[in-house]
Every structure is written in structure tokens, then in C-alpha cells.
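Figure 2 data, in text form.
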Amino acid sequence: MNFGRLIGIVWMLSITSVSFASADVLNFNEVSSEIQGSTTISLPNAEVTSFVSDSFVYGGFDFGVGPNGGFCALTDSFSCVGDAEVTFTLGPVSELTFMTYFADPGDSTTISIFDGLVELASFVVSSNVVSSNVLVDFSAFSGITSVFFDDNSEGSDGVAYADWEFTQGVLNPIPLPASLPLLMAALGCVSLFRRCI
């Protein structure tokens, strides 16, 4: 193996270590679109927990939601006014966005994102302030392990959460400037090895 080829291999290995992430969605089409009869919805990449009596799943394009559907925390009175939590089961995510749907006058929800037990940010959806369908944009944050919905709606049908998009995995675990010393050290070792041969 010649020296130039060895340098090329070392260079390629340093570049491929820069990013391990992929775009992903929560696809609620993987479960039946109906009242679940359960407080837990299990998806391949997340678990949704309702802190009231039930959960409801919207299939793709049901009632105007997007192609991947969504959910709401359903009370005994069949209103979507319960607290809920989404936990990402394949590890932390970043670039998270989703939509809220169906907010009526009196609906209000505080949405908080967490890295473990540490709250990273929160967002308030209130039908008195915004229209019924709202983009919730946490795309500036990484390391998100869960999302908590604190529903404070009064006398209304509540809010649904759909159209989830995010990046699964770690973004830039080794920044490119930090990989440069590693590359230089590897090239030094290759050069030393070459002289010994």
C-alpha cells in the first residue's frame, strides 16, 4: 500500500466521523386511528403517554392533520384536554417541529422540551393569542429526550399534536476543527510507520 493511499484512507475516516444523524417522523399510521383504550401509544421511535384516561390517534389526513397523523390525550368526557408526554426511545433528537390542531377559545397548553430532567425550553399555545393550527418550532435545540404537554384548557375540546418531524441521532459529535489534530496525529503515525518499513 503506498503512502498516498494510506493518507486518503485516514482522511476519509476523519471526515466520516463528523455526523451521525438522520431525518425522522413520528408515524401514527402505524397504530389504528381511533380511541386507543390505553394511556400509552407505542411507536418504533417514541412512546406517547396520556396522563388522563385514554389516548386518541389521528391517522394521516384525518380531520385535516398531515400525512403522518397525530394524537391527543383523551379524558372520560371525550375531550382532548389531558396532559401528555412524548419520550423518544431511540435516544435524543434535535431540530424538532410539530403542529397543534383544533384549539378553540379557552384552550391553552404549555409545551416543554427536556434533556433528561433538565427543561430546555417551553412554548405556550393559546387560542386567545394564535390561530387554531400552530407550528411548534424547537428546531434550535438538540439533545431533546422528551416533550411534556401541560394542558390548561377550560370548557373546550382541547388540542391535538401532529406532523412531528425531527432529526434522530447526534449532530456533529466531533466538530471539524477538533478532528484536525486527530488527522495530523494519524498522518504523523503513518509517516513514522512508513520510515520503519
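Caption note: DSSP finds two helices and twelve strands in the chain.
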